[in-house]
Amino acid sequence: MIELADVHKRFGRNEVLKGITASVEKGEVVCIIGPSGSGKSTILRCINGLESYDSGAIHVEGLRVDRDSRSIVAIRTQVSMVFQRFNLFPHRTALENVIEGPLFVKKEPRSEAIARGRALLARVGLADKADAHPRQLSGGQQQRVAIARALAMQPKAILFDEPTSALDPELVGEVLSVMRKLADDGMTMVVVTHEMGFAREVADRVLFIDGGVIVEQGPAKSLLNQPQHPRTQDFLRRVLHPL
Amino acid sequence: MEKFARDAVEFLPILLNGVALTIIVTLGSLVVSTLLGLIWAMMRVSGIRTLSWVSAALINMIRGIPIIVLLFYLYFVMPDLGVSLTALQAAIIGLGVAYSAYQAENFRAGIEAIDKGQIEAAQAIGMSWWLTMRRVILPQAVRIVLPPYGNVMIMMLKDSSQASTITVAELALQGKLIASSTFKNTSVFTLVALMYLTMSIPLILLVRHFEKRASHR
After folding, report:
1. Which of A127, A227, B183, B211 has its CA 20 to 30 A from that of B100?
2. Interfacial B residues in 116-145 facing A (CB < 8 Å)
3. What pTM was estimated for this model as a whole?
C-alpha cells in the first residue's frame, strides 16, 4: 500500500536519501532502524508529505505523494503520524485532541466523533483522562493520546517517528504495548525506532538504513539475529552492547 | 486647591464630551489596527513570497511615516483625490493604519513563537493552512500576543490625542479650547492629564493580568 521508488532527497548540499526503494504491504509492520542522521525520519516525513522529495516517486494506495497537490489531504487522512515529541495541541484536552481531525477535517457529526474519541482513549488505557490537558499528563500518557489522535482519522496506516525516544525509560513500555496491540489488530505500521526488542517481537520486516541507503532488509528475526552486512552487524553490536 | 475644585466642576462636563470622543477614536482605531495587523501578519507568514514581500514593504512604509502626517494626508489630501472623510473617520483610519504595523509585527512574533511541531501535527491530520491557523496556531499565539497588545492599547489611547490636529474635539482639543478661552491653563491641563491617567489605569491593570496569565503556563 506504500511504495517508494528510487527516492532522493537533499537538504542543501547534504543528500540525506540516496535512492530509497521499498514497499509496505497492507497489515505489515515494518521497522526502520539505523544510526541517527541516516535519513530514517526523513523517509517517514516524505511518505505523508511533511517533507518534499527531489526525485523518484512515493505512492500511497496508488496515489502519488505530492505535498503541493490537493491530493495530499486525502493521503494524510489515510496515513496518520505519531511524533517523537508527541506534538499534542496544548490548548485542548485529551479528548479534544483526538476529535479535532474527525470534526474539522473529516466533518463528522460531533456526537459521533466524541463517542468514538472516548472509545479510542479507552483503547489506549486513558478513558479517565479525557478532560485532562496535555501538561497534566506524563510523557507516556501524552504519546498514547497522540496514538489515539492518529487512530481517530481511521487511517489505513500509521507512521511512528521514534515514538519512545523522548520518554523516560519507565514509560516506554506502556507506549510499546499499545503499539503492539495495534499491530496484533492488523494495523499497517511503519516504525522508526531504536527499540530492538520491539522490532524483533512485533515487526514483520526490518530495514536497516545508513548514509541514506537501505543497507540491508529482511524478516525481523533473521535480520536482527543474523545480520549479513558488516555495517548492520556493527550497528547492532553498538546498540545492543553499548558498553 | 479650592479654586481647582471649582474649575473642575465647571469644566468637567465639557471635558467629558472630549473623553467620549477619545474613547470612540481609541476603540475605532483599535479595531482597524487589529484587523489590518492580522491581515499583514497572515500575509507575512503565508509562505507565499509575493504576499510576504508586499506585507513587509507596507509595514515598513507605515512605520516610516509619522502619525500626524498620515492624519493630514487622510484629512487634507484625500478630498483632492475625490475621497472626503469626516475628521472622525480620518482619525480612526489614520491611527488604525499607523498602528497596524506594530500590531502586525506583534502578531507575527506570536505566531512564529509556536513550536513547528504543532504545524506538523496539524498537517499530519490533513488540516489546510487556514484551518491550522484558526484551530491550532492562533489560539496559542493569543496568549503570547496579549501582553504587548495591551501595551499597544495604552499607546493608542494616548496617541488618540493626535486626532486633535485634524479638528476632532477629543479630550486634548477640548482642554486646549477651554484653556485658551479662560487662561486657566493649570487647572485645565491638570484635569486633562488626570483624565488620561484615569483611563489608562484599567488598561495598565489589564496588561498586568495578561502578563501574569502568560507566565502561568
Report:
1. B211
2. 117-118, 120-121, 123-128, 131, 135-136, 139-140
3. 0.85
